[in-house]
User: Fold VOC family protein from Sphingobacterium thermophilum.
Amino acid sequence: MKHKTLPLLALAASLSLLLACNSADTDKTNPEVSVKAVQFRIARPTNQLKEVVNFYKEGLGLQELGHFENHSGYNGVMLGLPDKTYHLEFTQQEQASPLPAPTKEHLLVLYYDNEEEYKKANDRLQNYGAHPVEPENPYWIGKSETYEDPDGWRIVLFNGTYTP
Assistant:
């Protein structure tokens, strides 16, 4: 299924920096700083790989771009949007290990430039069984819906686009 989204995968503040640097050759405040990377991946561990992958594939509609099994004690899946040079990776060690809990401000934000597609994305998540949660930051109220994945990490579906 093709999704008409203008995605910004914002899992951490560093992601926003990478997007800004990836779209411009140099930092305007420091012309000697530049990022020449052509791809980036946001990776995080989970002890519920199957449940998390199902949430992002079935609930959000991301595509599986690749996976690996039994790689030095790890299994993992890469998910993303078609034809994009950035994606998410979820990994799980063979032996479950304690993981840091996310805060309510750890966000993955997906921006939609089409209200119909935004509504479809919300319907898809809710039909999957996810329900909106109250955002920690009031900025998101009235222009987006916030959800939690099986590990408690938050996903924001934003009705509109981001313009720096």
About this structure: Confidence is low (pLDDT under 50) at residues 1-26. The CA atoms of residues 22 and 37 lie 7 Å apart. The first strand starts at residue 5 and ends at 7.
